[in-house]
Specification:
two-stranded parallel sheet; 5 helices; 2 strands; elongated
């Protein structure tokens, strides 16, 4: 099942890479984009998708699980997209000296592709987290032991997430005591 999910994620990313270049060109040129030969736009988008797919695979974007998408995944996406854009610009420069692509399009494409790859992963995580919380709320039957955590570090966050995801947890977090006065009253 894990291999299938990796292939689906890879397919998703290829489609997003293919779509990102025409979207970036449209954002850059507006309606003037349609003066370009459609076959060139499709060719360039296919070429970019192939380059991006190779970069995504080399940079191992598919080792993680969307359910646990984090800032590390966003950094990996950023690095892979940067490499893909640089490789594509170099390839297109060798092919036609970038005559057919406006110079600002690769930068716009960087933002577009980063958003197209990152947003679905984080939306998926939000959806799964919300479903898990609703499932936990529906299964609560016994009273929970109130817990006051000491320390607002990474360990406390991991403990809170574990408690929220486990419907059989015997604890309910009522507060956190931390050493940083700037965190008072914050969630």
């Amino acid at each position: 099942m894990g291999q299938l999910r990796q292939k689906i994620a890879f397919g998703h990313d290829l489609v997003m890479a293919f779509l990102s270049l025409p979207i970036a060109m449209f954002l850059r040129m507006g309606g003037d984009m349609f003066t370009y030969d459609v076959s060139f736009v499709v060719f360039a988008a296919c070429m970019f998708a192939v380059v991006a797919g190779a970069c995504f695979w080399i940079m191992d974007l598919y080792g993680g699980i969307w359910r646990y998408a984090s800032l590390n995944d966003l950094m990996a996406i950023t690095k892979a997209v940067t490499l893909a854009i640089l490789m594509f610009v170099l390839l297109m420069f060798m092919f036609n000296r970038l005559e057919w692509i406006p110079r600002s399009t690769p930068m716009i494409n960087w933002f577009v592709l980063t958003m197209l790859l990152g947003a679905p992963r984080f939306l998926y995580r939000q959806l799964k987290d919300r479903r898990a919380k609703n499932k936990v709320r529906g299964q609560e039957t016994s009273p929970k032991i109130p817990v006051l955590l000491v320390g607002a570090a990474d360990g406390a966050e991991m403990f809170i997430r574990t408690i929220e995801r486990n419907p059989n947890a015997a604890y309910q977090i009522v507060g956190i005591v931390g050493e940083n006065a700037g965190r008072v009253g914050r969630n």
